[in-house]
Amino acid sequence: MQVADGRTVAWTDWGDGGTPVLRIPGTPGSRWSIRADRTIWRERGLRVITTERPGFGASTRLPGRKFAEHADDLAAILDHLGIERLHVYGGSGASPHILAFCARHPDRVKAATILVGGAPMNEDEIEQMIGLNVQSYKLARAGDLDGLRKLMAPYHEAMSTDPLASLRGVMAEAPEEDQRIMQDPDWQRGMERATKEAMRQGPEGWMDEGLAISLPWDDIDLSAVRTSITWWHAPGDKNCPLSAAQRLVDQLPDAHLNVWEGGGHLTSYLREAEVLDELLARG
Predict the structure, then answer these.
(1) What CATH number has the domain bearing residue 19?
(2) Is residue 2 part of a domain?
(3) What is the model's pTM?
(4) 118: burial class by Cβ within 10 Å (0-12, 13-18, 19+)?
(5) pLDDT tier at 173 (50, 70, 90 boundaries)?
(6) Rg of the Cα atoms in the chain
């Protein structure tokens, strides 16, 4: 659909007539960031709406964007679908977008869940991440846009043509459980389709998002996030250290951190049934 400023925003809508749930993808993600095997959703009678941020897939790029813009896009999508309130969840780079939506449109969210979400980091925490994230964070914080563009261009090309091979390279330092998940055929099918679509417009949308996440989240009023939030994290996550997630959760008025005993950034793929049952029990 077209929003007020003329941009196109896109989403997928699976399971008409079920309980509506808003699923916000990580980074880079698209409206096709959905499970290839959707048995878990079907068993719970869900209608899952998966959105897409500016610059990814079919959604018009918005240079300089942060988080408020997409939060308002989400509200516009729900207005279009005639949905007043629903549960919201998502992982990784979805975290600031979920928080912005909860802050700006609190009446639309019954309860929210964040899975191994990104969080503002200090210099020591940046050094604990996978190599690509370390490099991109440092370039973004230094304001070196040319350097960031040169860094991201070959990764974009690789992820556009063979996202599975590219991700295995990017995630080479990830924990063993992440490596096992990346061998799952259903996970591979879903990831490949979602990533190719996310990369369709070029690397700029990915860069826009990386800049927003790496720099201060100054357009999110954390004190206004009154929604009940459960934040699940893994001690071995190499995309966002646990200490950064804990510090962010501590700033939220009604949030609880659950730490899995093991695993890494992709652990939520195996735990989605548990995650959904906990989320749907709130709100």
Answers:
(1) 3.40.50.1820
(2) no
(3) 0.95
(4) buried
(5) confident
(6) 17
